[in-house]
Specification:
There is one protein chain. With 566 residues, the protein is mainly beta. The protein folds into 4 domains: 88 residues, no CATH class; 160 residues, Jelly Rolls (Sandwich); 134 residues, Jelly Rolls; 143 residues, Lamin Tail domain (Immunoglobulin-like, Sandwich). Helices cover 7% and strands 33% of the residues. It contains 5 helices and 35 strands. Strands 2, 5, 8, 9, 12 and 13 form a 6-stranded mixed β-sheet that branches. β27 and β28 form a beta hairpin. α3 runs antiparallel to α4. The longest helix has 12 residues. The protein is elongated.
């Protein structure tokens, strides 16, 4: 159990105050361990409660909470006098080589806050939030998949007690370079970097705290670093009476491609007032998401007076549901990654409830006697902030458009025989009996409203508004007269005489959007007292042939050449 739950920190090169890698190291702390695990302060402390009806051991990755049976085993061992047991039953010891610095594995990129470190002068009597600018030189966009930090001096001494936390930001436009230069013209504290709020948009990556595990994103997820960006490394230094030189290093894990691009953002309330002497002041914060999203992780943050941090989710039409119930421990905080990311609809509210004890009895009290506490990023003021890692859920793809109709110019009669009444009105007129036959060979309707019929001279006719051919539908437009109905066929008279050229012409049908729907070209064969018809009717790729080559009739408006229905 010590190997599984404790030794990543409780080892000679770890952040914990004492190692627990051997019996000799663990035995003196038996009662202390019993108390810590029974109160769920340890392991790892990030004290996510698992027995309040909120989260359970399956909700988040890696909180390393003990089961009730494991807690009982610790207690029984301590109460029995911490016996060693049979050494032959020991598992092989874990390897903690001094040269293995990075708990999350070898990083792909390592950088420090400054070449010679940053000097914190003695007796400064305030916290310092120093931001260090790290230019990148990537040839393409890359993705952060994890990071951790190692505070220390240029000589390699650890400084976990000096560094409160490290926060990374991405500055795609490199405006941090300008901000640093402006700060350095009249610095309030000498040395590399700058202090002060961002005057531009900077993308939050995440936070690392001494004692926390390396930040490792859900496999397949990453946070984009656009090509040419700056990384801004903010180090929060607590009040240091004796001064120190810090050269915190950060190790990034990077990928060129990820499945999911994460977008960290904040749920926060900066309107905080915690009255002096109050034992249970409640501050809430909430954020409503206007688009559907997927929630991957949460990172709660308060300071020393915090006692409870609860996160709830309220889906539209439902009441709030608890996601996380944290017994706050300022010294052990970090990110909680959901084992199963949550897909949540637009209108979802993420709400935090932060509780504080500002009484004189609070062992973490900075001020005796207590005083009113307001919002502030320094450790003797307070925060109520939740970082959430999310991605928007893409809008569902629009339904596919209905099947499109396809126009085929199936038959053209430019030279009616003098004794042939093509339009069936009982009048023989070689001008009025000209026609064009259009067929929709597609699987969907075809809107011909406003389409033009033009030849080499110009527009000859316009299709009336509201004209739509169903799939397989047929339209015959005659040049004039009073065309007789044809069963199952749309018959109409042209808006003007077609005046098709017997000796040769090109006829084009064009939609109101300017799309050519169909075209046909003929030569002298158009003036042989017969129509031109597709060799394979209703096929837009079939050649035109003289109608008399496939029928005894000179034309067959609205019908196949053999007289049957189209």
């Amino acid at each position: 159990m010590l190997q599984e739950h404790c030794q990543s920190c409780h080892q000679p090169d770890g952040h914990a105050p004492f190692p627990l890698t051997t019996y000799e190291e663990a035995e003196p702390h038996a009662q202390r361990m019993k108390a810590a695990v029974a109160d769920r302060i340890m392991p790892e402390a990030r004290p996510m409660r698992l027995d309040t009806g909120c989260a359970d051991e399956h909700t988040f990755e890696g909180p390393r909470q003990l089961t009730y049976d494991e807690i009982a085993t610790f207690a029984a061992w301590a109460d029995a006098g911490a016996p060693q047991g049979n050494v032959r039953d020991l598992p092989p010891p874990l390897s903690f080589e001094p040269g293995v610095e990075w708990k999350g594995g070898a990083p792909d990129m390592i950088f420090s806050n400054a070449a010679g470190g940053f000097t914190l002068p003695p007796n400064l009597n305030r916290d310092v939030f120093r931001r260090f600018v790290i230019p990148t030189s990537f040839d393409t966009d890359r993705f952060i998949t994890g990071f951790e930090a190692i505070p220390g001096t240029p000589e390699g001494e650890r400084l976990s007690r000096v560094v409160h936390h490290v926060t990374l930001f991405i500055d795609p436009e490199r405006k941090s370079t300008i901000q640093e230069a402006e700060y350095q013209e009249n610095p309030t504290l000498a040395g590399p970097g700058f202090e002060g709020d961002f005057t531009y948009t900077a993308q939050l990556v995440g936070m690392w705290f001494p004692g926390s595990a390396p930040l490792a994103l859900t496999p397949g997820c990453g946070i984009r670093i656009p090509k040419g960006s700056n990384i801004v490394m903010e180090v929060h230094y607590g009040t240091v009476l004796g001064g120190a030189i810090d050269q915190t290093r950060v190790g990034l894990h990077l990928d060129d491609v990820v499945d999911v691009e994460l977008k960290p953002s904040l749920v926060k309330n900066e309107q905080i007032l915690i009255p002096a002497g109050s034992t249970d002041t409640v501050v809430t914060a909430e954020r409503k998401f206007d688009v559907p999203f997927t929630l991957y992780s949460i990172t709660p943050h308060m300071h020393q007076l915090g006692t409870e941090f609860e996160v709830s989710i309220e889906v539209p039409g439902e009441g709030p549901a608890c996601l996380a119930d944290v017994a706050w421990d300022f010294e052990h905080q970090g990110s909680y990654w959901l084992r199963q990311p949550r897909n949540l609809p637009a209108g979802t509210i993420i709400r935090t409830t932060c509780r504080y004890d500002n009484s004189a009895a609070n062992p973490n009290q900075f001020h005796q006697p207590p005083k009113d506490i307001v919002f502030g990023k320094v450790v003797d003021l307070e925060m109520c902030q939740l970082t959430v890692a999310t991605t928007p859920i893409p809008a569902p793809a629009p339904p596919p458009p209905p099947p499109a109709g396809t126009l085929v110019i199936n038959e053209v009669l430019a030279d009616p025989p003098v004794n042939y009444d093509a339009n069936g009105d009982g009048v023989l007129n070689t001008s009025q009996d000209e026609f064009i036959e259009l067929v929709n060979s597609g699987t969907g309707p075809l809107d011909l409203s406003g389409a033009t019929i033009a030849d080499s001279v110009g527009v000859r006719a316009t299709v009336p508004a509201g004209t739509t051919l169903a799939a397989g539908g047929v339209l015959v437009m005659f040049s004039g007269g009073t065309p007789a109905p044809i069963s199952g066929v749309r018959v109409m008279k042209a808006s003007a005489a077609l005046q098709l050229n017997n000796a040769g012409d090109t006829l084009t049908v064009t939609s109101t959007a300017g799309v050519v729907l169909g075209t046909v070209t003929w030569g002298a064969e158009g003036g042989a007292d017969q129509s031109l018809v597709r060799a394979t009717e209703k096929s837009g790729t079939a050649a035109f042939v003289g109608h008399k080559s496939v029928s005894t009739a000179p034309a067959s408006p609205g019908r196949r050449a053999n007289g049957t229905a189209l």
